[in-house]
Design a protein that fits this description.
The structure is a single chain. The protein is of the alpha/beta class and about 600 residues long. It has three domains: about 150 residues, Nucleotidyltransferase, domain 5 (2-Layer Sandwich), CATH 3.30.420.40; about 150 residues, Nucleotidyltransferase, domain 5; about 220 residues, DHBP synthase, CATH 3.90.870.20. Helices cover about 35% and strands about 20% of the residues. The chain has 21 helices and 21 strands. Strand 20 and strand 21 form a beta hairpin. Helix 3 packs antiparallel against helix 4 and helix 6 crosses helix 13. The radius of gyration is 23 Å and the shape is globular. The mean pLDDT is about 95.
Length: about 600
């Protein structure tokens, strides 16, 4: 049985293909269109999913959409009636989008994908919940989902056993932890639904007590974690902004202008927001545990990407086992909607290893990479000098030796990762022992804010030596304190790190490279950040990777078995169009 899951029309549109209950392909549309967080119908992503399995659209048994549009329409309509006439402009725009997109999902799927079979719909938070539980390898679990808003729900608690999954408790719009975080993200001058992780990264630079009481005026929190927002401070119900003048008055200043200087004030607000967020999440998770005897917890929804809060859940030992869907945001809804239909609706027998790893996107052979370097790149840049490693062992030894010191390397290998994190196949890597690499990668390669930390990748069997972490963290979704001061390039200002552990089973080539670096240097940790510049989606193709390499100060590019050195190709700097390149991407 073949089920195609789709998420689109809000942000991070994606397609996922489930064959006989296993996730065989999944990818975000942004990787093809090069529009970050692209929300359009994922035609390119669908094309990849089908072609990867050598099937056609008529072979699909069901297409499943991750939302119930009619429920979303109900929420929009009731909200506009409630806030009338304040939200007239927002109402008109919302209705236009609703009738153009939301209520015509089926029509658009049939027209754009030429699909004639059955189309099904799952509720948004059931898509989130299913994306985590059915890929977790648990046979029972408590489930918590948290995001901005689905149809009505913003936070849910549920329970699953074997095939059956049921959400039993919910908090509904406009009360939303995700929207509270987004509102402060907006107020701090960052982009909503894109830069919330920046606020999390900024938080350790501030005083969490400074604006704690101010933020607590925005929200009334109960002991079970349920909460109510004081909507007199927010405009997202009726306006085209997240906050209003009451919010500005409470915090004593207007919204920060994007790209203006960050002051200690912004750092303190971010820190206080993170503290409130952590308190709410811990209360919700503890309450969820009190409702069930299960020792397992599954998390999903955009708020589940708050890896600092995830680390606290782990540290407090509330549950024995925690699983977080690596694509916890809306993209993961494509996987969850399809799995919910296959297991919960159709009652097919539940199995393990439904999604063994997140490497579910396109890959390119050495033949394809060679063709790009000797034909397409030749046209634009002239002849490209490169080394070709005849064997994987040679490649591993060469790359491991290049990591040592100040070299920054673009790594383009195997299948592309699904979700927002690069996990070794579309990564920029460097030596974590060299403190200067932090700023070099931030300012000269990623072109991003200097305060932002980098994540480490560490050999799974060595993680405990470097970090206060006793579980695997394959998806870079847990934060823990560092134990050793020998890896300053990945240690945040508060002594923490957002950790990716890697094993042979998860990613053999990446493991071999780091293991060889460990043998060479005695250090089992490297820097790992996504292969892109600020505002750009993670690179998908050899052309994307090469363009990013040329227009940044990366030292080496490794694609398949090919290694390209910047210093060996003088022509590259002559043809570099850095400013023009960066202009293509909207800052987040």
């Amino acid at each position: 049985m073949k089920i195609l899951g789709l998420s689109f029309f809000y942000h991070d549109s994606a397609a996922a293909l489930i064959v006989d209950g296993s996730v065989v392909a999944a990818v975000q549309e942004e990787r093809f269109t090069r529009i970050k967080h692209d929300k359009s119908l994922p035609k390119n992503a669908v094309k990849y999913c089908l072609e990867s399995q050598d099937i056609k659209i008529e072979d699909i048994d069901y297409v499943v959409f991750y939302d119930k549009p009619i429920l979303k329409f109900d929420r929009l309509l009731q909200t506009y009636i409630k806030t009338w006439p304040k939200g007239l402009l927002s109402f008109l725009r919302g209705m236009e989008a609703t009738f153009t997109n939301t209520l015509s999902v089926e029509k658009k799927i049939r027209k754009n994908l030429k699909y004639k079979g059955e189309i099904l719909y799952t509720e948004h938070h059931y898509s989130h919940a299913s994306s985590s539980y059915y890929t977790s390898n648990f046979n029972d679990s408590v489930i918590v989902t948290m995001d901005g808003v689905g149809e009505w729900d913003t936070t849910t608690i549920g329970y699953a056993k074997d095939n059956d999954l049921k959400l039993t408790h919910s908090i509904v719009f406009p009360d939303s932890l995700g929207l509270l975080y987004s509102a402060l993200t907006y107020y701090l001058g960052f982009k909503v639904n894109s830069a919330e992780y920046k606020v999390m990264g900024l938080a350790p630079y501030g005083d969490p007590e400074k604006y704690y009481n101010k933020i607590m005026q925005l929200i009334d929190i109960k002991e079970d974690g349920s909460f109510k927002l004081d909507m007199k401070y927010f405009a997202y119900e009726y306006g085209l902004t997240m906050t209003n003048k009451n919010f500005d008055e409470l915090f004593g200043a207007p919204t920060r202008k994007s790209e203006s200087e960050l002051t200690q004030r912004e750092k303190d607000i971010a820190s206080s927001l993170q503290k409130v967020t952590e308190e709410i999440i811990l209360k919700i998770v503890k309450y969820a545990k009190s409702l069930s005897s299960s020792e397992n917890l599954c998390l999903a929804g955009g708020v589940a990407l708050n890896c600092v809060a995830n680390g606290l859940i782990l540290k407090q030992n509330i549950f024995k086992n925690i699983y977080i869907q690596p694509a916890s945001g809306d993209a993961g809804g494509a996987i969850g909607s399809a799995l919910y239909v296959y297991y919960n609706i159709l009652k097919n027998k539940k199995k393990d290893n439904v999604m063994p790893n997140p490497y579910l996107g396109p890959e390119y052979s050495n033949k394809e990479i060679n063709k790009f370097l000797t034909e397409k790149a030749l046209e634009k840049y002239g002849s490209i000098k490169f080394d070709y490693c005849e064997s994987e062992d040679h490649l591993v030894e060469k790359v491991a030796s290049l990591i040592n010191g100040n070299n920054v390397i673009g790594l383009f290998e195997g299948k592309m990762e699904f979700g927002p994190r690069a996990l070794g196949n579309r990564s920029i890597i460097a030596d974590a022992r060299v403190k200067e690499n932090w700023q070099k990668v931030n300012l000269k390669i990623k072109f991003r804010e200097s305060f932002r930390p980098f994540a480490p990748t560490v050999l799974e069997d060595q993680a405990y030596e470097y970090f206060d972490l006793n579980v695997s963290s394959p998806y870079m979704l847990l934060v823990a304190q560092t134990k050793k001061n020998i890896v300053p390039a990945i240690t945040h200002v508060d002594g923490s790190a957002r950790i990716q552990t890697v094993s042979k089973e998860q990613n053999l080539l990446y493991y071999k490279i780091i293991n060889q670096f460990y043998k060479n240097s005695g250090c089992a940790v490297i820097i790992n950040t996504s292969f892109n510049v600020r505002g750009e989606p993670i690179v998908e193709s050899p052309e994307n990777a090469f363009n990013c390499f040329v227009n940044t100060e990366m030292d080496y590019l490794v694609m398949g078995n090919f290694i390209i050195s910047k210093k060996d190709n003088d022509l590259l700097s002559k043809y570099s169009e850095k400013e023009k390149y960066l202009e293509k991407f909207e800052l987040d």
